[in-house]
Amino acid sequence: MKLKIASLALLFIAAAATAFKAPSFKGDTYKVDVQKSSITWTGKKFAGSHNGTIDLKSGSLGFNGKKLAEGNFTIDMTSLKDADKSANLENHLKSDDFFGSSKFPTSTFVIKKVTGGSGNTVNVSGDLTIKGVTQAISFPATLAWNGNTVTATADKIVVDRTKYGIKFKSKTVFTDIGDKFIYDEFELSVKLTATK
């Protein structure tokens, strides 16, 4: 009797483990070539703007046929560069006033939902994590195919830095800052090349 009860208990545990197992992706996975991919950023202040680059550390896109279904990306926050090669600006952006890259060396983006647009354009929604804070964002992206390689481009991803605790010289936080403010929103332009 004890053996029968033990067998039933093991069977129940095995069934429960199978029932609660996350479904695995059934489509095709495309690995992002970080050397052929790029991320550029633009930040604006009252007196002008700055722009530069940041490196993608790793990434993948999942497709069902040619329909984008998922994606995971890791961004190297320590690679942040200013186009004007200002070491002072780069160091400040990496400091705790902004991205705190020594404590948070990576940011991530995980695709949660993709809806169809017109032609090869889709609307991507997902979770962006910066400085350990995760927020939902959405943006349009364009897909272009060449055999087993796909290029995904998002020309304007708008991110509100204050939602990630980055409040330095924010006019919405420091209302008496006058014209020394930095706009809350910065923009990312992303081009990914991935191969099956």
TrEMBL record:
Species whose genome carries this gene: Pedobacter nutrimenti
First and last residue of the signal peptide: 1-21
Keywords assigned by UniProt, alphabetized: Signal
Protein name: Polyisoprenoid-binding protein YceI
Matches recorded under Gene3D superfamilies: Lipid/polyisoprenoid-binding, YceI-like
Residue span(s) of domain Lipid/polyisoprenoid-binding YceI-like: 29-195
InterPro entries per record: Lipid/polyisoprenoid-bd_YceI (IPR007372), TTHA0802/YceI-like_sf (IPR036761)
